[in-house]
Amino acid sequence: MVAVGSCGEWFISTCDTKLIAVHTKQAREAFVFDCTTAEKKPKNTGSDNKSDGGATEEAGNDKILAFAVSPSGNLVALTDDTKRLVLFRCQPSWQCISTRWVVRRCTSLVFSQAEEEVLVADKSGDVYSFSVVEPYKEGELKLGHLSMLLAITMTPNDKYIITADRDEKIRVSHHKSPYNIQSFCLGHREFVSALLIPSGHPQWLLSGSGDGTMKLWECESGRKLQSCDLREPGDAPTSESEPHKKPTVCRIACSPDGRHIAVQCERVPTVQLFGLRKEAEERLVPCSKLTLPHCPLDVTFDLQGRLWVLMGSGDTPVQIYTYTQDCWELDAESPETTRVTEALRPHWETLKGAAGAESRFQHLYKVNFDNMASYMQKKQQRLEQQKQQGNKRPAGSRAKAANGAASKKAKQDEAEADADAQSST
User: Fold this and answer.
1) Which keywords, in A-to-Z order, does the entry hold (predicted)?
2) Which residue(s) pair with 130 in the sheet?
3) Could you tell me the CA-to-CA distances from 362 to 135, 190, 318, 357 in Å, in that order?
4) Helix (H) or strand (E) holding 192
5) Domain range for 85
6) Alpha helices (H) along 231-316
7) In a domain, 169, yes or no
8) Cβ density class 327-341: b for 16+ within 10 Å, e for less
9) What DSSP string describes 214-248?
10) What is the DSSP string of 122-152?
């Protein structure tokens, strides 16, 4: 997994098994954490779960699956394929606080606004809470879905946990009593792959899906406010038999002031930008579209509201866009770009490999089976085969079959006549 984030003045990127943090303002040495050299799980722990799809600790490959930055930017958490949960403190300098173990492989992380806990959503549909105050305490089960969870977030007041799964459901649950469901946000036609509560708009929720749309919700009531189709105007409508050809939303990012929304779709060489208006019927307004030389790997906003785009290319690996005079312009001469580029240069090969890797959403699409069409096709083939076999019979066989049919018909007529005679007497 390749992902980027902003943590204060640190630019963070995860690439394969490594987390790389680069200070954008000072010429400081980059912080690199490699999961292959991290603490190993003790063999005698009682938290092993044998029902984890048959996967064992040895089956993991140390690749980072998800990471999250706390609201203050002081904490970072990551989880990897060997089911580690690693907690870092990055202010005033980077320090690994603890390494704990999750039950199943995770798909998404989020810190609470109070930064007292980190919530971990996993592939089996469960959400566990891990304490930040007690960094070595085991996780506690908070809630569960009947489907794989793909995204999780929390409202800024820590009142609600919002989870999204493979079966198009977005659930809004009470944080203190997760069994108490506040609402469902229903309307997507494919898996929900991204969630975001925009800055300054705590009552709203943005969601992205494999159905090629981004939707705006009033999360507490579950009411849909707006839906944006992210397909290109010239794109032909996608048939239901080829849902994987729809643009899949893999990232929704919001600027710190809450005015701009950036939407990235997997394997599409553009980033779509929207303006967010509070007092308007059309709250999401398309602003511009950034056409990139390569498909982006991930995007994020920094504290200044600039948009950072990471691409798996040695020519243009990192690009920064600044909003000036009602448009987004590339800041090609930014010293931050040079500093981050040099820090990431040793990892180019891994980034390029990630750019050409298989889609991580491909297996999540529904598969529709038209049983009636298959049945009718087989029936037609069977009738044609019978007709061909009948035509291949010798003339004598056909005559004999015809005489047999006539004889059978005569016997049926004779039996019917006898029955009529008996009934008349």
Assistant:
1) Nucleus, Repeat, tRNA processing, WD repeat
2) 118
3) 36, 12, 26, 12
4) strand 192-196
5) 2-356
6) none
7) yes
8) ebebbeebebbebbb
9) EEEEETTTTEEEEEEE-S-TTPPPPPTT-GGGSPP
10) ETTSEEEEEESSSTTPPPEEEEE-SS-EEEE
The domain that contains 225 carries what CATH number? 2.130.10.10
Per-residue pLDDT tens over the stretch 65-89: 999 999 999 999 999 999 999 999 9
* Radius of gyration of the CA atoms of the chain, in A: 30
Token pair belonging to 102: 């999750």
Whole-angstrom distance, CA of residue 10 vs CA of residue 410: 97
Report which of 239, 196, 193 is spatially closest to residue 216, judged by C-alpha positions.
196
Per the rule left: phi > 0, alpha: psi between -120 and 50, beta: everything else, 318 is beta
What is the distance between the alpha carbons of residues 130 and 5, in angstroms, rounded to a whole number? 21
Confidence at residue 406, expressed as pLDDT on a 0 to 100 scale: 63
Q: What confidence tier does 57 reach under pLDDT thresholds 50, 70, 90?
A: very low
Looking at the structure of the chain, the number of domains it has is: 1
Beta carbons within 10 angstroms of residue 401's beta carbon: 12
**Cα torsion 295, 301, 307, 310: sign:** negative
Contacts of 56 (CB under 8 A, 6+ apart): none
In sequence order, the 6+-apart residues with CB closer than 8 A to the CB of 292 are: 269, 270, 271, 309, 311, 319
Q: Write the pLDDT tens digit of every residue in 354-398.
A: 666 778 888 898 876 667 777 788 888 888 888 888 766 555 555
* Pairwise CA distance, residues 167 & 190, whole Å: 7
Alpha carbon distance 14, 380 (integer Å): 55
> 66 lies in a domain?
yes
Residue 111, CA distances (Å) to 13, 85, 122, 163, 292 in order: 18, 13, 15, 14, 32
CA distance 37 to 40: 8
In a domain, 82, yes or no: yes
Residue 382 belongs to a domain: no
Q: Which residues contact 305 (CB under 8 A, 6 or more apart)?
A: 255, 256, 257, 259, 260, 323
